[in-house]
Amino acid sequence: MITNLINEKLICLDLQATTKDAVFREMIDLLAAQGKIKDKQLFLQDIQAREALGNTGFEEGVALPHAKSAAVIEPAVVIGISRKGIEYGAEDGKPSKLFFMIASPAGGADHHITVLAELSSKLIEPGFFDAIMATKSSRDALTLLTAKAEPVAAVTGESKGFLIGVTGCPTGIAHTYLAAEALEKAAKELGYKIKVETNGSIGVKNAPTAEEIARADAIIVGSDKQVDMHRFAGKKVIKTGVKAPIKDAKGLISQALSAAPYKPEGNAASAEGSKSGQTRSDLYRFLMNGVSHMIPFVVTGGLLIALSLAIGGDPTPGGMAIPEGSMWNSVLNVGVVAFKLMIPILAGYIAYAIGDRPALAPGFIGGWIANDGSFYGASAGTGFIGAIVAGLLVGYFVRWVATRDYNKLLRPLVPILIAPLSGTLFIAAIFIFIIGAPIAGLMTGMTNMLVSMSGGSLVLLGIVIGGMAGFDMGGPVNKVAFLFSVGMIASGQTQFMGAMACAIPVAPLGMGLATFLGRKMDLFDEDEIEAGKAAGAMGLVGISEGAIPFAAQDPLAVIPANMLGSIVAAVMAFVFGVTNSVAHGGPIVALLGAMNKPLLALAAMAAGAITTAVVAITLKKIKAAKAPVANAA
What's the average model confidence in pLDDT over 86-104? Predict the structure, then answer.
C-alpha cells in the first residue's frame, strides 16, 4: 500500500516551518502541488480536527498527522524532515523531526490505518530513524521507505509454541499497530507463532477464536483500552500498557510465559495495574473509563442545549423558554436526551471497567435509577456522584457473581443472564430501599436550612448557596439551592436567584479557563482540553453540567475549586445587590436583561470562574508534585 502512495515529489528533506501549524501548511502545499487534494484549507481544518482528538506526536521525534477528508482527491503520504525539530506536543516532550502526513479520502477505505500499520514495521526497525534523517536526496529516502525489511531470522527448528497478543490505544491509531508489529517481530525471533488482535479506530481486527485461545501458551495484552479479559481465564496472561511492547516485546513474552494462570476474581488490580509505568490506582482507571465514554454525551448534549437557548430562547418568569413546536425546541429536546444518557453512561462504563460485559447492563440501569429521584421519592436524582457509586457497586458485585464456581450447565448463562440480572436487582434494591430515603431526607433538610437562613446574613447565605451550586453541578445539592432560589422569586425576593444565577456558570467557565491556562503544564489530557472548550460554551448559557467530566475524573481537586469559585460569585452577587427574575443562570441571562445589574453580575461570574481555574490548577500541581515522591517511596 505505502509504495503506491509515496513519490519523490512528496518528500521534503528540509522543512522550513518552525511551528506545528506551519508544518501542516508546508506539507499540504506538497500534496496540492501533486494534485492529491483540491482544497488546502479544508484539508488543514480536517487535520487540525483530528489533532484535537489526540496529539499525533509520538516518541523519538516522529509525528503522524493524518485525516480522512472530502478535500482529498486520491490517497497519498507526504514525508517531511525538520532538521532543527519543532515543538509538536510529543508524548516524550522532545521536538518532532520526522513527519508522515497521511491523506485519505472521506468515505473511502481506511487508507490511513493501513498505511500506519505498514509504517509501523519501519518505525520499529533499529536505526531507521537515523538512516532516514541522514539521507541526502528524496530518491534515497524513498528507497529506504519502500525497501522490503529483511526477514527476521527465526529460531531454527519447530515452533516453540503459540502466543496471542492484544494491542490497543485510546485513539486506536499508531501505538496500536506499533505494538502489534513489535510483538510479531519479537515472537518470531524467539521461535513462537503469534496472533495479535488490534483494537484500533476501525474496530477489533484479527481477534483470536476460542480454539486459538485454548491452545495458546501465553497471552500478552498491551492495551490502554478496555479489553474483554474473561475469555483468557485460566491462561498465562501479562497485561500492561500499549507502549510496553514497543519498548520490550521480548521481555513481555518471557514474563507472560512464566505468569500465573489468569483468574478474573481478584485479578483486575494486577491486570490493570501497570500501564507503561503509570502509578494511577485501579479506582482512577475505572473512573476514567466511565468519564471517557461520558464526555461525548456531555459535549453533544451541552452544545445542543446551549445553541438552542442562545439562539431560540427568551427570558420568561419561568426561566429561559423556547417556543413550543419551533426548530430550536427540537434541538433542545435532542440535547436533553444526551444529557439524560450521560449519567447512565458514566455508571455503565465504570461498571464495565470492573466487571466486564456482564456489568454493562446493570451499570446503565443503576445509573438511570440513581439519576431519577422518582424511584426513591426524592425531588432530584443523585447526579454524577450517584452514578459513580452505582458503577462501582455494580462492577464489584457483578465481578464477584461472575467468578463463583458454577455448574457446567450454568456457566454459559452467567455472563448473559445470571450476572446482569442479579446485578440489576442488586443496584435497584440499594437505591430504592437503602440509599433513597436518606437522600430524600437530606434534600428536605437542606431546603429547610436555606429557608431558616433566608432572613440572616447575606454573606453567609452566599457562602452556602454558592457552595451548594458548585458541589455537584446539576446534582441534588445544586438542585436544592436552585429550587429554593426559584421559589423565592414568587415572594418577590429575587436577590437569591441573582446569587444562584451568578454561581451556576462558574464551574464550567472555570474549568474551561483552567484547561486553557493549564494546557502547557501537562495537567490536563487531550480529552479534558477538548471538553474544556465545550464546558466554556455551556457555561455561557448556564449549563453547570459541563464541568461534570472534570469532577468525576479528579473530584479532590475540581469539586473544592468549583465550590470556592461559586461561593465567590454568589457572595459578590449578594454584596452588589444583583437580582434575577427568571429561573436560569449564566452570562446569557445577564445579557438578555433579566438581571438588574448585568455588568456587576458578569463581574461576579468572571471572578468566580478565575477563582475556580486558579484553585483547580494549584491543587492539580500540588497533586502532580506529590506523585514522584509517592512513586519513589
Answer: 86
Instruction: Give residue-wise pLDDT tens across range 352-411.
Output: 888 878 899 999 999 998 888 778 777 667 777 888 889 999 999 998 888 777 776 777
The reply to whether 477 and 607 lie within a common domain is: yes
Which residues, at least 6 apart from 201, have a Cβ–Cβ distance to it below 8 Å? Answer: 110, 113, 171, 172, 173
Residue 71 makes CB contacts below 8 A (sequence gap 6+) with 37, 38, 39, 40, 42, 43, 46
Both 365 and 399 in one domain: the answer is yes
- Residue 317's CB: how many other CB atoms inside 10 A? 12
Of 95, 119, 146, which residue sits at a domain end? 146
Q: How many Cβ atoms from other residues are within 10 Å of residue 364's Cβ?
A: 24
Which residue out of 12, 111, 169, 175 is catalytically annotated?
169
Buried b (16+ CB within 10 A) or exposed e, 52-64: eebbbbbbebbbb
Final residue of a domain: which of 120, 146, 172?
146
Are 60 and 42 members of one domain?
yes
Residue 169 is among the residues annotated as catalytic for this protein: yes
Q: What is the mean pLDDT of residues 438-454?
A: 77
CATH number of the domain that 118 lies in? 3.40.930.10
Q: Is 12 a catalytic residue?
A: no
What angle separates helix 506-517 from helix 555-576, to the nearest 10 degrees?
Answer: 120
User: Is the domain of 235 the same as that of 322?
Assistant: no
Place of cell 445539592: 477
In a domain, 110, yes or no: yes
Number of structural domains in the chain? 3
Neighbour tally for 577: CB within 10 Å: 12
With CA atoms as reference, report the closest residue to 447 among 415, 424, 480: 480
Domain span including residue 420: 282-630
Q: How far apart are CA 462 and CA 457, in angstroms?
A: 9
CA 295/CA 215 separation, integer angstroms: 40
- Asked whether the beta carbons of 574 and 459 are under 8 A apart, the reply is yes
- Give the CATH number, domain containing residue 228: 3.40.50.2300
Taking 80 as the threshold, does the pLDDT of residue 510 lie above it? yes
- Active-site position among 12, 66, 111, 502: 66
99, 15 contact by CB (below 8 A): yes
Q: What is the pLDDT of residues 285-299, one digit of tens each?
A: 677 778 778 878 877
> Which of 47-56, 326-335, 369-378 holds the top average pLDDT?
326-335
Kindly state the helix (H) or strand (E) to which residue 196 belongs, with its residue range. Answer: strand 192-200
- Looking at the predicted structure, is the pLDDT value of residue 202 above 60? no
Determine, yes or no, domain membership for 156. Answer: no
Q: Is residue 34 part of a domain?
A: yes
Q: pLDDT by residue (tens digit) across 581-617?
A: 777 788 988 887 778 899 999 999 999 999 999 999 9
For residue 340, being part of any structural domain is answered with yes
Cα gap 505→516, rounded to integer Å: 17
CB-count exposure of residue 429 (10 Å: 0-12, 13-18, 19+): exposed
Q: What are phi and psi of 356, to 5 degrees?
A: 65, -160
Q: Tell me, yes or no, whether 77 and 172 share the same domain.
A: no
In three-state secondary structure terms, 514 is helix
Grid coordinates of 566: 461559586
